[in-house]
Amino acid sequence: MAKEQKRVYYFGGKKADGQANMKNLLGGKGANLAEMVNIGLPVPAGFTITTEVCAAYYDNKGRYPKELTTQVTEALKEVEKEMGAKFGDKDNPLLVSVRSGARASMPGMMDTVLNVGLNNITREGLIKKTKNPRFVYDSQRRLIQMYSDVVMEKAAGIEPAEGKGVRQQLEKELHNMIVKYGVKSETELSADALKELVEIYKKKVKEVLGKPFPEDAMEQLWGAVAAVFQSWNGKRAISYRRIEGIPDAWGTAVSVQSMVFGNMGDSSATGVAFTRNPATGENYFYGEWLPNAQGEDVVAGIRTPNPINEICKNEHTRHLPSLEKRMPVVYKELHKIQRILETHYRDMLDIEFTIQDKKLYMLQCRVGKRNGPASVRMALDMLKEKLITKEEAVIRVQPNQLDELLHPILDPKAELITKPIAKGLPAGPGGATGQIVFNSADAVEWKKKGKQVILVREETNPEDIEGMRAAEAILTARGGMTSHAALVARGWGKCCIVGAGECEVDALTKTLKIGNFTLKEGDFISLNGTKGNVYQNALPLKKAEPEKNPDFKAFMKLCDEIRVLKIRTNAETPEDAAKARLFGAEGIGLFRTEHMFYGLNAEKPLFLLRKMIVSKTEEERRAALNELFPFVKEDIKGTLKVMDGLPVTFRTLDPPLHEFVPKKPEERAKLARSLAISAEEFNKRAEALHENNPMMGHRGVRLGITYPEITEMQVRAIFEASAELLKENKKPFPEIMIPVTCADTELINQYALIDKVYKEVCDKFRLKSIKHLIGTMIEIPRACITADKIAGVAHFFSFGTNDLTQMTYGFSRDDTATFLPKYIDNKILPEDPFNILDQEGVGFLMKVAVEKGRSVRKDLKIGICGEHGGEPLSVEFCNSLGFSYVSCSPFRVPIASLAAAHATIKEKMNAPKKVVAKK
Ligand code: ADP
Ligand code: MG
Ligand code: MG
Fold it and tell me: What strand order describes the sheet that includes 46-49?
């Protein structure tokens, strides 16, 4: 006969069946309880029912595997032996807690039930044993309160009306008792009062739920166990799993553990603590405790908890008693244990403990949650303490945690007590406060007057650029994570919330309506762009200055030491370039030449560009280009200078020309005059530029082929700027990038032009050479498929994954709002492919392109300059394909750097271990 499967794992005394690495089977809580027993810490005995039982329970329509009952009975016997008490016994009763625990901690799962096994008979035994009737009645009323709520109501799927839940009704009874006996709080209720309350509770449970409270200890135990399994498929748990991407199949374990009592009087207590301060990362024991309390009293916030020691006191808790002072001996032991635990787990831990009559018990430990700054600080400290390796220090900080160090944030304390007035998509992280303005001009104006403003728009477009720049933050009612506002804000590291659907923005009357209340121009609001929350009024801000933060700098240095992938930035102004250099960028991966026609000081060049666009003959066009040339050259030179010694990739003009043709009649008239043509003629020419599908129209390399003089002017500007810098003893390194290529022949055509200009400039400046590369953007599927041919001409590839995604899916990026949300809701697509690179489809094309390209040119430089270049998962993917660099907006540079370091570490961890040959 096959050996029956082990379903129950005992822990207690000096031995445990399980250990820390068995989280999948025992859940996080069960595995760590076992581990604490194994390393000799005081843990009340108990046993864990495996997650496999949960799976079997669901597979078999709520029936347990048949061997479970016997295994539980046996484990319970062992627990009874260890604790010297018997479950359900009238003279010497053992009480237990029933605790849920999945692999990952899951708020929203079932609450724990304490004091299971207590009834009117066993309580008499416990009273005799402890000589503390008050404590026993208090425990019993707590059991009824928890059990009826968690097991009889929630797990049974009963959804009571607001305020009608059994817990609330029982709490009302408790309150009535407090009033009746004229005391201040429940802790002052006498034993007799609590005994009376137990009977009132039982009656109420029957009345509310139509069933009596189970008195039988075994019935209580199995009821609680079943409730834990049921709770795995409760509404809250399911929705939490959806958000966090936890598979349904994991299941939860159940730990049944002997009760220890923190509510036996003033020499008893309970508490939670962290081995280091989780908010700052500082290396001192941090925590809270309550005397004469049980279980969740500390976290529930019913009573204000006390600081655990003197060092973690603050101005609000200074007057409260610390455990360190109140129970110095127990505190010392607890302090020693938390050190043992941290050294053992080599990480900051979150621990739960209870003191029963001066004796300390450990009830839980797990790796503690921490915020971004704390996470960086701890990683650096633990590395210094030689507790962890450099790689571990880097892998422990998540990209979104590092992000927290880069943006000012709303003061979390203030946020905690304020309710958001609206919610949207978290497009630009960080926090901001300011006065509402409704258009770009007002934003600029108010900013000039020294005001801080938040630009509120239905949605933004390129004409809002100046206002967006001037604003502290941007809020739009429409648009998605890749909308114009979102892209721009992310590029600047600006706080931004888009698609806040409840907001009705009326730019005419300058009002923002949310539900039935209205905000006007000048009213203050606050945004949390990391969460997507909008608040009324100005909440206090906490500033971030990463470049002045020594922790940040030290941590980035670690990343730089580990990663192989280079990090560049997308930037087109000397200021952005300088910022990115400060953050560690090793070049510019995308400089869009057209940027100089938007925003500040763009008037003159834009006018000249427009003149060029509506020119009809080559002669007219060349004249306009000649006028434009000095502006373009200056612009390019500024950035090359800041990036001295590092590569700068200049993309030649990309957008379709009609985008630049003015719509306003007065602007059109002015242009017509300067070209000496009539208004009709002007309109005719503008009309001719119209395209049905401009994204796939006359743009990119196609412009350079139809109007070679445009390419010529741009590359001349690039080479002359470089030549001038060489004369100033600088080291410019331009890379010329041709966009929207689909065939090698396009490049051959442009290459000839570029080469001609290159030679002319070298001659003009009497230079033998100017260091440069000529390459192409890969953003059309055909370019990927014919990459071997293209690499015959191009020195480098840079993947434009925005367009490549657009072309591969056949989705117009600017029009996805109408259908993509539905796709994602219905899981037709796992996520927005413009946000997170689609490795299966788009990534496949990239892989093909890399392989084909490098088969022809071994040292082909390969990068990415699409939005995905700063997205951690996509960065890892690029690393796996053997890219030379990724390029992203300046504020994403540290994130990309961290992601690249993670990629290198993970690659090493997954690499097959070298087998040492035996002699
Ligand atoms: P959660 O997963 O919500 O933290 P726990 O299972 O840790 O739930 O239990 C909630 C509270 O009850 C914790 O404060 C814990 O310390 C306490 N508790 C759980 N089991 C026992 C026990 N056997 N004796 C005393 N207190 C317990
Ligand atoms: Mg807990
Ligand atoms: Mg493109």
Answer: 15-16, 8-12, 46-49, 253-258, 96-101, 113-116
